[in-house]
Amino acid sequence: MPLLLLGIATIVFVVSRLTPADPLVSIVGERNLNNPEVVAAAKQRWGLDESLPVQYAQYMKNLMQGDMGTSFTTRKPVFDDLVDRLPATLELTATAMVIGLVFGIGLGVLAARNRNRFIDHIARFFALIGSSLPAFWAGLLLLYVFYARLGWLPGPGRLDPRATAPDEITGFYTVDALLHGDFGGLRAALAHLILPASVLGWGVVGIVSRLVRASLLDEFSMEYVRVARAMGLRERTVVNSHALRNALLPTITIVAFTFAFLLTGAVLTETVFSWPGVGSYAVESSRNLDFPAIIGVTILGGFAFLMTNLVTDVIYAFADPRIRLT
Amino acid sequence: MTAVETTPFRSRRRSPAWLRGPALVGVITLVLWVLVAVTLPWWSPSDPLEQVADRLLGPSFSHLMGTDALGRDVFVRALWGARISLPVAAIVIVSSVMIGTIVGAIAGFFGGWIDSVLMRAVDITMAFPPILLAMAITASLGPGIGNALIAMVLVWWPIYARLLRAQVIAVKQREYVESAHAIGASRWLILRRYILPMSYTPVLVNATMDFGQVVLLTASLSFIGLGARPPSPEWGAMITEGATNFYQWWIAAAAGIAIFLVVLAFNFVGDGLRDTFDVKDLGDIKDRN
Amino acid sequence: MIALGLITGLLVAACGSDDASPDAGTPDGSVSSSQATDDATGDSAGGGSETALVIARGMDVNSLDPQRAYCDTCQIFMTAVYETLIGLDVDNTTLVPRLATAWESNADQTEFTFTLDPTATFADGSPVMSADVKFSWERQQGLQGSASYLVGSIASIETPNDATVKVTLTAPNSAFLAQVNAPYLGIVNQELAEAHGATADPETDTAEEWFLSNSAGSGPFTLAAYTAGSELRLARNEAYWGAAPAFPEVLIKETPQAVSQRQQLEQGAVDIAMQLSADVADGLGGDDLVIEQVPSFNYVYLALSPGAVGGEQLSPEVREAIRLALDYEGLIDATVGGAGRAQASPIPNGFAGTDGLAVPAQDLDAAKQLLADAGITELTLDATYPSLNVYGVDFSTAMQKVQTDLQEVGIQLELNPVEIAVWAEQIGADGIPVTMLYFAPDHTDSSQYVQYFGLMEGTQWQGWSKADANPAEAPLLDQAFAAQDATERAALYSQLAEAMIADQIIIPVVNPDLFLASRSNITGVRYSACCNLVLAELGRS
């Protein structure tokens, strides 16, 4: 694990130094590039005048202390930028996760109960659409229809331009508004979440529904379900209180994996919806060749992936006693 | 836990069991797209880079998906986009499979420190969300479809390396391989003749499913501005233009539908293949072997 | 013409009006509409509105340090938060007192003396004194920020007493008062700035970060908060020494897409949007919206760099051929839907010296002939450009049109859109053979265009294009600076404009109209030639 983290940091550092472009401009301004004094001062201040190995050692040392350097574009510590933007991404991802799970489980149950019938195929098709639609176009389309044309839902961003964010407790606008008893704010925050979270969540519906369907079908073939059915219990009772409960166990284990998937999808969704999260930060920084920011956000992504894998392993271990963590 | 259950090698030559329902629709769609991509220069109604009418016209009979900000036929451009996305995805997949096969086979076959070193590289690469790493690499190499392609190969090969390694290790234990070894067949010969042929199926299935994902990733990188350069009718780039001309929904829609059709077709085919061959999803083999 | 709900903008005859400003060579066409003019003084802005004013805008902020900032949004910010010694009246021509109550110069315009308003105070209550002026301008010189060319002619600043500033220039400069009017020469509170690390030396100065969340000016607003990529929040300076602005708070929300700006304006989420393109503004209207289409001094240009790596074949003949190959009408149509004008020289329509200049026209045969004579059959050029959307012009659209036009004469462009920071790095190092950029005036004098675009030692485009200097330009500019008479000055700038046209480095593509859209209860919205949008003049009725 620590080795993997070190590897991640190293790879990102190497990758970012492949670039032919020079980040100096964003520091000193374009009119100053011909001014050697200003350029030298900036280089020294940002550590760009050292050799690559020295830069690397310095970078690693700083990283150990949670210091990811200062972003060339925002001129703030990358770590602070990420902390600032993480709640927005987490709120979006969590909402998308809820949407993905609700619809995924619903579709999965529907499909399993109507196995190989028309409704099964429809459910499957619906799920496949989700993973085939380019999120960035789906987002534009939804914005065009529900925001620009119909005016039913608010546009890009987390809140209306005029609104101010609730005082920060968790950084989740919905939760914070609720904690402050600000129901208008809660409604506004939720309204802004609907479109991006749906776009993001739809991609997960397929994964969840497929898994729920498969494990439900496994359960249906089990003795106890047959017995319950033979005893004349209603199909709904059988599914809801017996089979589904057991079938959900393996589903929980993919939640973590799905979360990592969502974090990836957030990059494009946030860009389309001007969502001020980590994903749009990643896009802005790679467009601007903002090395510290690119490094920081990619490490965060790798870290999130690692953590979710770890969590998945732990859940697996709890869910299935046959597997032991080594 | 073994990553991929070994698939018993069955001849599928006579009965393509997977080729029905959605998978069949998928194959037909893909064949049509490839045909369009290959033959387009001979029958294209207009040059995708040429102004053919007034700018920003809505869909009409003469211009099925209207025109863009420069008066180019959007439908024609979307068709030409296939000549970029399909080859790019093919190159990415083929290169990744080749690199991954070689690395995975070497690691699995030789084991020991070679295995450790190679697999650590794989682990580290796979520890990143693909799009983030691809963005970082493309940004560093400089934006452009060529560099985006390189970045995607760098991001994608470890998947196949891991797949192949698991496969090789599983096959290696088989009796006939051990006996071949016993009668003095060279390692390379065994690898080439016995082990690699066994591994085609899971690689093929995964490659099919990944193809659509690479098409999506190519478009995503272009959408962000790191991929294709104008005036290329690349689909992701067209959607960016569509975002600028938001009220002219048809510009983004043409490219969006094109991507959707291609990716959906690959998903149909991949789904059919997976169900038939019972190859595990990559999500399940990630980070455990 | 597009069907706009309510066009109050006067399409002023851009050329041909008199150039009668006594103080400085100023642009002639006035661009303020009659409606805007009525409301546009600071005093009448008091609409008594207590809710915040919200502006949707794609911000290009490079810094909020008053001596480092240089961007279109910075013009708005600087005007609201920091005050200049001299202001510009709503006619975009007349210089009016601001921090200085009076100013005078010697006969050959090498010495200027300003008398400061004794009642002027900074937001923290301390008086604005001559030392603050000296500190601000010397820091502007020392930090060598992008706007430092404005103080390039200053040799020394003396402060004989707290209310008097005496500036000595290195050479006659008839444009100096106009330069002083540029928002970038706003005055900063020396004591406060120094307490947070401000010095005039880039090696020791550490104040830039502090300025991202604080301000030290005397203007009607103070900086409340800034979040890059999100919002710029200004609060009313409750201790303002002049007439208090109407809005207690002004919020500029990062809204890069013109479409989003329109949507939010239509839905009442924002009060002002001023970066709409003609396509997006099309069909916008209704009782509760006001949209003005006004001519602007902004423009987008194509730049050719013979000295850039890969630009070696851009001889004067080839550059002339490129100029002749462009379809200017088509470009104006493709970029701004026809809502703009062609522009003859790097000095934009309406500034002194632009009367009677011939607008370029496409001539493919002549272009082909020039290339054939130069022995060029095939030419491929790198065209890296910033992926911007400025003044309603999408650079990608414009460059693709340029690419198509040049293909007609056998010149291939390799288009490569990049972020502005990446672009700036490349043009500063190797240069870029063919590229595109924009310019908005910093003040009202034509000299800024010669100082930025002319092929003279030290100008921006001389450095970027690495073209041979044009020895005729520097003496002409010196003459223009020394000229006492406005007509004489205009004649000299006209010669300079012709010289820059002949340089064939800068080829203006389009001078777009500005679409100023606002909720109809907002008063005082106008386009200012120096300052973009003057927040203190705005009110809600």
Give an overview of the whole structure:
The complex is a heterotrimer of chains A (326), B (289) and C (541). Chain A contains 13 helices and no strands. By secondary structure, chain A is an all-alpha fold. Chain A is globular, with a radius of gyration of 24 Å. Chain B is an all-alpha fold and 289 residues long. Helices cover 70% and strands 0% of the residues of chain B. Chain B contains ten helices and no strands. Chain B has helices spanning 22-43, 74-110, 112-126, 130-141, 145-172, 175-182, 187-224, 235-244, 249-277, 282-285. Residues 1-15 and 281-289 of chain B have low confidence and may be disordered. Chain C is built from 16 helices and 22 strands. Chain C has helices at 34-39, 72-81, 130-143, 176-180, 190-195, 258-266, 278-281, 316-325, 328-336, 364-373, 395-407, 420-429, 447-453, 460-465, 473-482, 486-503, and strands at 53-57, 86-88, 95-97, 100-105, 111-116, 154-161, 164-169, 221-227, 231-236, 249-254, 272-273, 289-295, 299-304, 340-341, 379-386, 389-390, 393-394, 411-418, 434-439, 506-519, 522-523, 539-540. In chain C, strands 1, 8, 9, 10, 11, 12, 13, 14, 19 and 20 form a ten-stranded mixed β-sheet that branches. Chain C has a four-stranded antiparallel β-sheet with strand order 4-5-7-6, covered by helices on one side. In chain C, α8 runs antiparallel to α10 (364-373) and α9 runs antiparallel to α11 (395-407). Chains A and B meet through α1, α6, α7, α11 and α12 of A and α3, α4, α7, α8 and α9 of B.
